[in-house]
Write a structure and sequence with these properties.
Layout (H helix, E strand, L loop, with lengths): L4 H6 L3 E7 L10 E9 L5 E10 L5 E11 L4 E9 L6 E8 L4 E7 L18 E6 L16 E5 L17 E5 L4 H8 L2 H12 L3 E5 L5 H4 L16 E3 L4 H6 L16 E3 L7 E6 L2 E9 L2 E6 L6 H4 L4 H9 L11 H8 L4 H8 L11 H26 L6 H24 L4 E11 L4 E12 L3 E7 L1 H7 L5 E6 L24 E6 L2 E9 L3 E12 L5 E8 L2 E8 L5 E8 L2 E8 L4 E2 L7 E3 H6 L2 E5 L6 E5 L10 H9 L7 H4 L12 H5 L3 E7 L8 E5 L8 E12 L15
Parallel strand pairs: 4-21, 8-9, 8-10, 10-11, 11-16, 17-34
Antiparallel strand pairs: 1-2, 2-5, 3-4, 3-6, 6-7, 12-13, 14-15, 15-16, 17-18, 18-23, 19-22, 19-33, 20-23, 21-22, 24-25, 25-28, 26-27, 26-32, 27-29, 30-31, 32-34
């Protein structure tokens, strides 16, 4: 911290402490909570708090935390969000005084998610946040923990209030246990649980393990009543554990020693969802859809000593987290990076958006040939022409600059022809819609190319949002980059431009978000994203779907203001082909409707016949995932059904950056999913990129938007996706 003498004349405010992430744990590319503690001293003061952190390319990005007033002798903590883009990045916190210089505190990251196992897991490693009085798992990299990195928070009051703060978590496990002090603290953390609730509704996964002593937390009006509707209604002794062992696929029994408390299962009569495991008529594991997310309820206390000491505990935790299908081994990171430059699906999407119409990639061989022609012109050819046609070689003082000017003009013309004259924007967007909760979410990724260096402003496009019928309650905007150690990846070598390219600003305030003054070099690209979420004023779809002997029955009506192209509906592991659905049109499955098994659709599995006559045989052939594809829809579809397609075992790429977009949980929660391309004007998208400067022309934009909707189905039982193939 640097306190100047001039600063002391204007205020007595000090930056006492800065806390980043969950107990110091954070990941590049994810929204991370930050707490700044200020001390008012004898005089107090008013000023603006600003956090500065490097983005994925090393440029410095400012995140204003707002104007704060600190009274004399007051100690105040401000919580906000920040995104760091580099490994080992340093964060600078500034208190910009009114009428005076700034106070600064620079903090280097200590426990961030990169490097050796002692410092934290890798960027690709899933992180699970456990909230509870006692840890239920420990970190054993490469061991029986399944590669999960566990972060345990025992004090709920230290948790962030902002829902985006949990974005890094693959899942959150809340274990109430029997600790009275933990329950007392939890009862006073209403803002924390509201933030967690919004995160789950936005696509998070919450696993609950409760004890009947925590009934007040889940009772109507309690801080967690949304998680278990109807609350807890006592418990019943669990005399057998065979169902729990079967659910965990455990080869060894769960043993409760003599003298230990009995295992009990809480009763939740109001929990409407899918029963994933039960012992007789006692539900042990239940799950239900909550917005775009999932709530999994384990009615047995995971902090019970018998479970904590069970050698197969990791199997049970992996089932609750749905991590069992993800053990496809290493994805061949070095080989993937060598050939493609990325090891995550988000990196492939980033690469796909870097292809612009009218912008030609110039190979080095072409540049070498042009340089060779230039050297021939100014050297041997100029010498021969002067020797043959002109008696005095002093004319070279004229011919040389003429050749130089002509070649320079040709180079400039070729540069414009190959790289274009205006700003180009490629965008792909996703509109998620939860029909039951009347909630919509728009996420868009854009990559733009500029032939000239300049500053750019990025905002959500209000006109586009009106066309979708979305009224956002929250919004965010920022840079978009690929994780991993490939070229331009967040785990690659730091470029650290510092202040040489100028700082830019990201402002987020409820439904408003903007990125201001983003510096971009000449003939370079920059990738950004926007994310918005909120309720919908009117239903965008109308459905009356039911489960008829594991087949889909009923109708779906399009109430969007635009047509839905190439629409499909996925249910119980089957894909129903809808085609084009005009506004106001309805679709109903017919008897014998053409459908295809979901994994076959995702993996392009087909039957081939080999041999002839009596030796003729049929075999199934699965097309390998094409990591060289630059088709945004091909990539996005795999991101949306990653686990259903086979996870990293099939794709051979991670899906760490946008794991919350995977809709496999929706299917297992008994939902049907509509997926289609929106028939919208492709020259307008969710991301509005505007160059600064007088006379700047608006960019030429190419945008694709896809719609995905979670549809409730009466009588749905959920279950494994494999049921569709049986």
């Amino acid at each position: 911290m640097k306190d100047g003498a001039k600063a002391a004349q204007h205020a007595d405010v000090r930056i006492e402490a800065v806390r980043l992430g969950w107990d110091g744990i954070w990941k590049p590319g994810f929204w991370t909570p930050i707490w700044v503690t200020l001390s008012g001293g004898r005089k107090g003061g008013s000023g603006e708090l600003v956090v500065t952190a490097p983005d994925s390319e090393g440029a410095l990005c400012e995140y204003p935390l707002g104007r704060v007033r600190v009274n004399s002798n007051e100690r105040r903590t401000v919580e906000s969000l920040v995104r760091l883009g580099r490994m080992g990045a340093a964060v600078t916190v500034e208190w910009r005084l009114e009428g005076g210089p700034a106070l600064r505190r620079r903090m280097a990251s200590k426990r961030s998610l990169f490097g050796t196992a002692a410092a934290g897991p890798s960027l690709e490693q899933p992180v699970v946040l456990q909230i509870g009085a006692e840890p239920i798992a420990e970190n054993r990299p490469g061991g029986a923990s399944g590669g999960i990195y566990w972060v345990t928070i025992t004090d709920p009051e230290s948790l962030p209030r902002n829902p985006e703060s949990y974005q890094m978590a693959s899942a959150v496990i809340l274990t109430t246990g029997t600790d009275a002090r933990f329950r007392e603290r939890s009862a006073s953390c209403g803002e924390v649980w509201r933030g967690l609730r919004e995160w789950v509704a936005s696509g998070g996964r919450l696993v609950l393990s409760v004890d009947e002593s925590a009934a007040d937390l889940f009772a109507p009006g309690g801080p967690l009543d949304w998680a278990v509707p109807g609350g807890l209604a006592g418990s019943i002794r669990l005399r057998k554990t065979a169902a729990l062992e079967t659910y965990a696929e455990s080869p060894r029994p769960l043993v409760v020693r003599r003298g230990e408390p009995f295992l009990k299962a809480v009763q939740v009569p109001g929990f409407q969802g899918i029963v994933a495991a039960k012992e007789g008529n006692i539900p042990l594991v239940l799950r239900r859809q909550y917005g775009f997310g999932t709530v999994v309820l384990c009615t047995v206390d995971l902090s019970h000593r018998a479970i904590r000491e069970w050698s197969q505990k990791h199997r049970l935790l992996e089932r609750l987290l749905d991590r069992t299908e993800m053990h496809g081994g290493e994805v061949g990171e070095q080989r993937t990076l060598m050939h493609h430059g990325f090891n995550d699906l988000s990196g492939q999407l980033h690469a796909a958006l870097e292809r612009f119409p009218g912008v030609t990639f110039v190979p080095f061989s072409t540049v070498a040939i042009l340089l060779g022609v230039y050297f021939v012109l100014v050297g041997p050819l100029d010498y021969l022409i002067l020797g043959r046609y002109l008696p005095d070689r002093r004319w070279t003082w004229l011919t040389f600059p003429v050749i130089l000017v002509v070649v320079s003009a040709l180079a400039w013309k070729l540069g414009e022809a190959w790289k274009g004259r205006g700003v180009l924007v490629n965008e792909v967007g996703l509109l998620d819609y939860d029909l039951e909760g009347s909630r919509a979410r728009s996420i868009a990724w854009a990559n733009f190319f500029t032939p000239r260096a300049g500053l750019f402003d990025v905002r959500p496009n209000a006109e586009y949002l009106d066309a979708l019928g979305l009224r956002p309650a929250s919004a965010s905007v920022g840079w978009f980059a690929s994780p991993g150690r490939g070229l331009g990846g967040m785990a690659g070598a730091s470029l650290d431009f510092g202040e040489s390219v100028g700082n830019y600003t990201v402002r987020i305030a409820g439904p408003e978000a903007e990125l201001l003054g983003l510096p971009v070099a000449a003939k370079a690209t920059r990738a950004v994203f926007t994310a918005l979420e909120g309720p919908t004023e009117n239903p965008l779809l109308a459905t009356d779907l039911s489960d008829r002997q594991q087949l889909l029955d009923g109708t779906v009506t399009n109430r969007f203001s635009f047509a839905l192209d190439d629409a499909v509906i996925v249910y119980r592991g089957w894909v129903y082909f809808v085609g084009r659905l005009e506004p106001g049109a309805s679709w109903r499955p017919r008897v014998g409707e053409d459908r295809r098994e979901l994994r076959s659709w995702l993996n392009d599995r087909r039957v081939e016949t080999v041999g002839e006559g009596v030796q003729q045989q049929s075999r199934q052939v699965v097309a390998p995932y094409d990591r060289s594809s630059r088709d945004p829809w091909y990539i996005l579809r795999m991101m949306l059904f990653y686990r259903a397609a086979g996870g990293d075992g099939y794709v051979r790429l991670w899906n760490a950056q946008y794991a919350y977009l995977d809709a496999t949980d929706w299917l297992e929660n008994g939902r049907a999913i509509l997926l289609a391309r929106a028939d919208l004007d492709t020259s307008k998208g969710a991301v509005a990129v505007r160059p600064r400067g007088a006379g700047s022309q608006p960019p030429r934009q190419e945008s694709l938007t896809y719609v995905r909707a979670a549809l409730p189905v009466r009588g749905a039982e959920g279950g494994s996706l494999a049921q569709g193939a049986e």
